[in-house]
Amino acid sequence: MKFILLFLCCSTAAWADQDADFLAARTAYLAGNAARLESYAKRLKKSPLEVYVGYYQLRLRLETAAPDTVKAFLARPEDNPMIDKLRGEWLKILGNKRQWELFNSEYPRLIQEDAELTCYALQARRHALADSPLSEVRELWLTGKGQPESCATVFSAAFEAGTLTEADVWQRFRLALEAGNVSLAKQLAEKLTGTHQFSVNLLNHAAADADRYLDKVRLDSANAGQRAVAMFALQRLAKQSPDVAVAKWEKIAAYFPSAEQHYFYGWLGYEAARVEDPRALSWYKKALSEPLNEQQLAWRARAALRAKDWAEVLNSVNAMNEVQRRDAAWRYWKARALQAQGQSAEAIKLFTPLSTEFSFYGQLAGDELAETPGIEQAAFKPSSQDIAAISALPGVQRTIALYRMDLRTEALQEWIWVLRNFNDQELLAASEIARRNEMYDRAIGAADRTVNIHDFSLRYLAPYRDVLQTHIRENNLDEAWVYGLMRQESRFATGAKSITGAAGLMQVMPSTARWIAKKLGLKSYRDSLIRQLDTNLKLGTYYMKNVLSSADDSPVLASAAYNAGPNRARKWRGEQALEGAIYAESIPFDETRDYVKKVMSNTSYYAKQFGIAPRSLKDRLGIISGKTADNQQAVPSVGDAPPSTEIRAGFVTAQDTPVAP
């Protein structure tokens, strides 16, 4: 990779020396070698990366460092994430030591907060004002997840003050069971009394073998706590098999009051919807007015979409809370439901503003309005002065240096930090700088953040077209789809690697790569070649063609297969034909559902950019034919067929996560 932007007054040789020194300093820090770190710190004193080395040195002795020393580092003029990182780490030490005066002096400057620090801040407030109501505690308490130890003191104070009650213990206990957090549920069970009290051993047995537990449990005189354990066992079975759960339920349902029966049907409908069980809606309806959580409501709507029950789609969306209803998916499907029921005017009121959004559902809304606008020319192009001004920022220089050293996590953290307060013009200048330095993922990330001024040539970069053309022609692939998939896989970062081992621009799994290499007769292939540009593109495009051919030439099915495996993709077909958008919306894996939508949205934008004949996204999504004996035959994962049961986690550092203001 070539980097054309130089640090001020730095030559390429100076780069190499600086990089070597920094990597050695980082290694010394990770090894806890303060003396060796000090020697490299002196060499990096004047470099933009010195703030990282300063962090390394102070972090090694943060527990014992003098407050003035820590404050001096935190008061540095650099705008850098490592300063806020150290601030958060020091605040946790201060909170643990109950040094509230120092804590309160630094806490207001913190940008990145977490639950541990929130609870320390509440402790500090409680220390200063003993009768503080601590109203924020309920939000921290009511979760099925465990909370940091710093929250225990606050929770105890809230119980003493009556802010939290035993009813809240019961509610959190139920949330822990729903989340499958048995460890937390057992801790909470120890606090339950009266009709909620039961032996924790019951929970151990239910968690170990739900089927056996339900065969042996006696519920004729069970209290609320004992029924809750049985309900937990039923939920675990429903996740494994709705049929098994229903069979058990029919034997014991009479022992549960009506509200708890409705509660069970809400969960049964949810688990059934996630495995495309056609009974899901009927079970949801048996939940009656029992409140459903966000995931249950989402899957009720998805089950209704697969059943083409537009009235139930509308009911499901209307039952969502305001925040969930604002999601683009549910605005779109509500409009479609209104349209299907003859309420076109109301549907248009939803489609119109949604169609202005650059997203999968924004594009589909435009299709419903018969609007297929092309990509407009950028209203703003950064000048040389704009480029120079942004290039001079130390945060940009640090990002380039970290990227050059392949410290991708640190580079991403620095880049997001420096961009967090940029306006649209500054974002586009930063994007152009990243593009010129072949940091294509960072360029796309910056261009994606603009609000009013956009440059789609940066948002949808298309590098390596000359290298790709041969492989695209060899496999007779749609270039727009190839780029749409690559953008989602790696954002064109050649060194991209997922947590499951998928590598390169096209994020090919090693086992899949070996299968393809054998099919192509690449006798000298070895695993290290998967990261080589031309080899990765050759392997990836061949596999795209392979999954496309086995998926009715549907890019929707093929995209799902590329991410989650061909067998899963074909299993997610409906009993009857489905719109491509409904198929995508009802994919049970969150990652794959999001992936397919983004690949197809990307494809549409690339088609416009490449000058391909106009075609709506809805048309591209097409119709996914229903299940048949032929298309449900599983592809084996050994022998002469590609591995088909691997799901690849996407490239985890490709996406931008906004930093809290």
How would the blueprint of this fold be written?
Elements: H1 12-30, H2 34-43, H3 50-60, H4 67-74, H5 81-96, H6 100-106, H7 115-128, H8 137-141, H9 150-161, H10 166-178, H11 182-189, H12 200-208, H13 210-216, H14 224-240, H15 242-252, H16 258-274, H17 280-286, H18 294-306, H19 310-318, H20 322-325, H21 328-340, H22 344-354, H23 360-368, H24 384-391, H25 394-404, H26 408-419, H27 424-436, H28 440-448, H29 456-459, H30 465-475, H31 479-490, H32 510-520, H33 533-549, H34 555-564, H35 566-571, E1 578-579, H36 580-585, H37 590-609, H38 617-621, E2 623-624
How would you portray this structure in words?
The chain starts with 11 loop residues before the first helix and ends in a 37-residue tail after the last strand. The chain is mainly α. α10 runs antiparallel to α11 and α34 crosses α37. It has 4 domains: 117 residues; 184 residues, no CATH class; 76 residues, Orthogonal Bundle (Methyltransferase, Methionine Synthase (B12-binding Domains), Chain A, domain 1); 160 residues, Orthogonal Bundle (Lysozyme), CATH 1.10.530. The chain has a two-stranded antiparallel ribbon with strand order 1-2. The chain is built from 38 helices and 2 strands. The C terminus is likely disordered.
Cα separation of the termini: 33 Å
Rg, alpha carbons: 28 Å
**Mean pLDDT rating:** 92
User: How many structurally independent domains?
Assistant: 4
How large is the share of residues in beta strands?
Answer: under 5%
Largest sheet: 2 strands, antiparallel
Helical fraction equals 55-70%
Computed structural class? mainly alpha
Main sheet strand line-up: 1-2
Helix count equals 38
